[in-house]
Backbone:
């Protein structure tokens, strides 16, 4: 087990109806809040209304910034930050999926520093991020996820896309830990089948990445990770069949939060290469992050993990998909088959071509993945550094 | 899954050699520290020396209070609190097992309020605890466990014994969360076989109690709990055979912290009746808490759980001890057998008579358990409230 520091300053309020306490909770941090959300879904589903009602009841002043797009963009963040400054907001309240929550963290940063967020994004061409990360100053943030997926509600990371430069990468720092996360599973009843499934793949990927690439003497962490993966697999299916099954939605939401709260990876470390390879895809094509991960995972397992750490892939299969083969190589094949079959079952099995990716872009994207993510130098230290050629081969395998 | 609030404000610094950072960490919270520890073992093993060296190096002033006994007593706490006040200490640093850490939390309380700790202890005869709990004010606390057992290093609970009144019960409150816990597995190399085993039973009991008594729609929590139980069982044995096996000691220590950090029980709730039944034993006889739990657990499983929740006991057996019986009743019997066999294997299987308990005290202790713990009213709500007669029958079964 590696040495580690674990810090979970975000207070979590979880359960049925807890969204009605939003006003009372926000009030602890200030009088005026910038409510950051997407353009349509929180209006359609009524979540936004629930939140604004609670704010009004508590007498909290608010400004709604409802301009966050999927794969939130640097320019949107900068605009949000400016509004927070002009309106003299005391804190940022995120309502939505990973996009709204990540944008809120970035807006909270920009609102204090008045610097464009692009300067903070890891791997950007300016290189300024090397001085600016980790982020030490931001407005207080409160998160209300409406989708079980990214785990952004209770950690200090965010992913932002610079659409001009086709760069999608992370910002991070202690100031980005939300003060409180309000997790109300009922808010996720209205999530579409497609986003429910993509979200399950996102949390599953958060779990398997460190499990595959990190230190192997961390059995406590491995068993927690396996338990969470089993829950993601099990309850994704239940939630798809019964979108208003409270128990299934609660388990998915809590699994997604726990997957990235630090517990699973503390002492195991391990980079997240598949996330980084996917980020190039959604920086270029604006596809759902979870869908991109679902497309890439079989290629990553077949081309990299099956060779580098077959025993880990075999263990995942035995623990999560009840694979019984004793031989690791055979177990790896069976695991990949079981995984693909789960993806098909929940409707996330797909190809790059089908989500609109053009074949002629693959090579450029592979090269950009290495440049933006730094995967070449240090990122899969525990297995091996990836090359642009390897990334290209993965893209090619799942192209059509 | 029940609604819950999860709050883990304690920063955890875990790993080999981390104890050498004590001074630098303590310095963040003040200039003068009361170092609370036991009478002998941290001196013998050199832990105390490592800590004081680090404090000196960082230029932190310290006073050593080395009077904490096993099952720490109210009068010791009051004396420690007075010294902290007289010496104008800014914070409390605990070095030791659960006793030193629990005493530190109590001393941190008394140091601020100047009230005797007895007034705060849940269930005491004065009834003042009803107003004083949860504790909102205390000096900052930093913990350095030297034993993997109680999980006190990263939660806001402590157990204190009033020896005069034969009452052992809890104090709790947000002010008692340690600011930082320094978890250095190498400090536990010197723990005796007997304490290593008793500690493993303590963490195992922290895990099974809520699992047996809490809400049953909390599969994420159940799977995390089962994973932690498997690790306790596995690494206790390894650590007994190889006391300086870093990996085993690291896994035991991290399992003990995670068992009571809030993650396992959040959303499942569930009281800890066996802990409360044991507290009466150690309030009267000053025996090791873990040993008391090991003695009582088979009786609790046979007399209460096997009848109330056989499916839960069967599940524990299947998930933790590889029990294969499909019939729940048969699986319960096999689980209890496997448990007893594990206790025998690690040397914690014992009887009340053997640890010095007198038969004529059993009835009084059973009655006191109900009075002090409140087990009669609310404590096993999820199964059933216990009566003094039931507690007595458990004591009798494991008397000799």
Residues:
């Amino acid at each position: 087990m590696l040495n580690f520091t674990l810090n979970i300053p975000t207070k979590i309020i979880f359960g049925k109806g807890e969204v009605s306490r939003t006003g009372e909770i926000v009030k602890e941090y200030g009088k005026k809040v910038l409510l950051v959300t997407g353009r349509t879904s929180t209006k359609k589903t009524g979540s936004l209304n629930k939140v604004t009602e609670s704010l009004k009841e508590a007498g909290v002043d608010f400004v709604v910034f409802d301009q966050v797009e999927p794969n939130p963009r640097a320019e949107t963040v900068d605009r949000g930050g400016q509004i927070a400054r002009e309106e003299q907001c005391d804190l940022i309240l995120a309502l939505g999926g990973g996009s709204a929550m990540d944008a809120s963290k970035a807006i909270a940063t920009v609102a204090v520093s008045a610097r464009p967020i692009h300067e903070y994004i890891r791997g950007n061409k300016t290189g300024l991020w090397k001085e600016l990360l980790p982020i030490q100053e931001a407005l207080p943030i409160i998160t209300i996820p409406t989708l079980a997926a990214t785990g952004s509600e209770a950690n200090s990371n965010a992913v932002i896309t610079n659409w001009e430069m086709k760069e999608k990468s992370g910002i991070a720092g202690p100031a980005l830990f939300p003060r409180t996360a309000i997790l109300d599973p009922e808010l996720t009843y209205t999530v579409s089948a497609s986003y429910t499934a993509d979200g399950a793949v996102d949390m599953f990927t958060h779990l398997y990445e460190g499990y595959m690439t990190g230190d192997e003497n961390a059995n406590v962490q491995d068993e927690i990770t396996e338990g969470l993966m089993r829950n993601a697999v099990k309850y994704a299916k239940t939630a798809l069949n019964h979108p208003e099954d409270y128990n299934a939605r609660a388990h998915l939401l809590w699994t997604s939060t726990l997957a990235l709260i630090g517990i699973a990876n503390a002492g195991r470390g391990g980079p997240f290469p598949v996330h980084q390879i996917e980020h190039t895809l959604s920086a270029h094509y604006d596809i759902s992050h979870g869908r991109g991960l679902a497309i890439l995972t079989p290629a990553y397992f077949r081309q990299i993990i099956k060779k580098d750490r077959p025993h880990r892939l075999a263990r995942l299969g035995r623990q999560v998909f009840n694979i019984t083969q004793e031989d690791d190589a055979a177990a790896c094949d069976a695991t990949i088959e079981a995984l693909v079959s789960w993806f098909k079952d929940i409707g996330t099995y797909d190809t790059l071509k089908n989500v609109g990716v053009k074949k002629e872009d693959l090579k450029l994207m592979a090269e950009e993945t290495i440049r933006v993510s730094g995967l070449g130098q240090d990122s899969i230290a525990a297995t091996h550094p990836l090359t642009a050629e390897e990334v290209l081969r993965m893209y090619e395998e799942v192209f059509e």
